[in-house]
Design a protein that fits this description.
Oligomer: heterodimer
Order of helices and strands of chain A: HHHHHHHHH
Number of strands of chain A: 0
Shape of chain A: globular
Number of domains of chain B: 2
Largest sheet of chain B: 5 strands, mixed, barrel
Helix content of chain B: 25-40%
Shape of chain B: elongated
Order of helices and strands of chain B: HHHEEEEEEH
CATH superfamily of the largest domain in chain B: Nucleic acid-binding proteins
Structural class of chain A: mainly alpha
CATH topology of the largest domain in chain B: OB fold (Dihydrolipoamide Acetyltransferase, E2P)
């Protein structure tokens, strides 16, 4: 049942049509969430008792860091689906996620650095959290490099899926690094079993921003997948039919 | 066809599990090297390096900060709630430095067991709240720190 849905959704013409219909709605939703999240985070949320207004970079830093890990898992799982069931769309989703994920990882590292200097007193330290997040960036870059290094795109997708699956081991390391080892980075605030240790007025804009980032990722990955589909099979019959309709 | 797919899936799961186990043991082997700082207990028990720089982390004991009347030298006591180490530092402290705050200092022990710091970094906790909330629960914010 589930696999039948996957097969149907992953047929290029069906995917192309339905993603085209979804995009305007998603874009509207994204701007709504982003506007609300930014207003809430930068204007209505109170200043922190210790860090004052500087803590507001949390509204970019934390969602970006969450996305960097989330996208990696999506990339690895869809790569795995591509490996097992040889579904072309899964391969495309996997590789299309790589550069978006790399961008979020870079954003998390840069905003973290900008936050670290005034609060900790250092731009960068080699503690377990920062180092494992940097390794994540290198994994993404490795995936992108490997994909572009192999001429045949289906072979490349398979090689990349293996690399992505190997790197999955880094995800729990990033998350638990602050618990397993002494780090300069503080422990988890929101994603823990206990009640989040952040005031509710600060938490809501943070969650809205996280949702906005997630919707942005869906938009970006759909756009990239559509392009990649057209590029991979420029002579596909469904593309001709599509062009007929446009005319 | 079905069997081939199951085989592939099995191989992938086996690969991920194998790598997970390998990394787990690798990280355990290097556990001490992955610690960003030593605690006060490590220093008292002599686990910290004697002849080169290392980082010491802990909480600044309330009421222990003594500033010298002239210059930038400051002395304070760091604790991990079990043992205490005195730290001496000359320089500008980060904005977040205060009593009851977690910090990480980089430096060396002198002959008297005083930690001479060359660099002090502030470690902030994972709690975020408005000042008025922090004021109303003044008695306990520092205790939640790791």
């Amino acid at each position: 049942m589930f696999m039948r849905f996957i097969y149907k959704f992953s047929s290029p013409p069906y995917f192309y049509a339905i993603s085209g219909k979804m995009l305007p709605w998603l874009t509207a939703l994204f701007f709504l969430l982003l506007g609300y999240g930014l207003y809430g985070g930068l204007v209505t949320a109170p200043a922190d008792y210790q860090q004052g207004d500087s803590f507001r970079i949390i509204y970019v830093h934390v969602p970006a860091a969450w996305m960097s890990m989330f996208i990696y898992v999506v990339m690895a799982i869809s790569g795995g689906i591509g490996l097992v069931w040889r579904i072309k769309l899964a391969e495309i989703v996997s590789i299309s996620s790589a550069s978006i994920g790399a961008s979020f990882t870079f954003l998390a590292l840069v905003t973290g650095s900008l936050w670290g200097k005034p609060m900790w007193g250092a731009w960068w330290v080699w503690d377990a959290r920062l180092t494992s997040e940097l390794v994540l960036l290198f994994l993404y870059l490795g995936v992108i490099g490997l994909y572009n290094g192999i001429e045949d795109k289906r072979t490349a997708s398979r090689a990349v899926a293996i690399l992505a699956l190997v790197g999955v081991v880094n995800i729990p390391i990033i998350h638990y690094s602050v618990e397993w080892w002494n780090t300069l980075h503080q422990g988890a605030t929101v994603s823990k079993l206990d009640k989040p240790s952040i005031h509710i007025d600060m938490l809501i804009p943070l969650l809205v921003m996280a949702l906005a980032f997630k919707v942005y990722y869906v938009i970006a990955v759909l756009l990239r997948c559509r392009n990649e589909l057209l590029e991979r099979e420029p002579n596909g019959k469904w593309i001709d039919e599509l062009l007929e309709k446009v005319k | 066809m079905r069997i081939i797919k199951q085989k592939r899936l099995g191989l992938i799961l086996l690969m991920v599990a194998g790598i997970g186990i390998a990394v787990f043991f690798g990280l355990r082997a290097f556990n001490d090297n992955l610690m960003y700082f030593f605690s006060a207990t490590d220093v008292i028990e002599g686990k910290s390096p004697k002849d080169h720089l290392f980082r010491l982390g802990g909480m600044v004991v309330k009421g222990s900060v003594i500033r010298q009347p002239s210059g930038l030298t400051v002395r304070f006591v760091l604790t991990d709630m079990a043992k205490e180490v005195t730290v001496e530092y000359t320089g500008i402290l980060p904005d977040l430095f205060r009593e009851g705050q977690g910090i990480v200092a980089n430096g060396k022990l002198d002959a008297n067991g005083v930690f001479i710091a060359q660099e002090v970094l502030a470690k902030h906790d994972e709690n975020y709240m408005p000042p008025e909330v922090a004021g109303s629960m003044k008695n306990k914010p520092a205790e939640t720190q790791k």
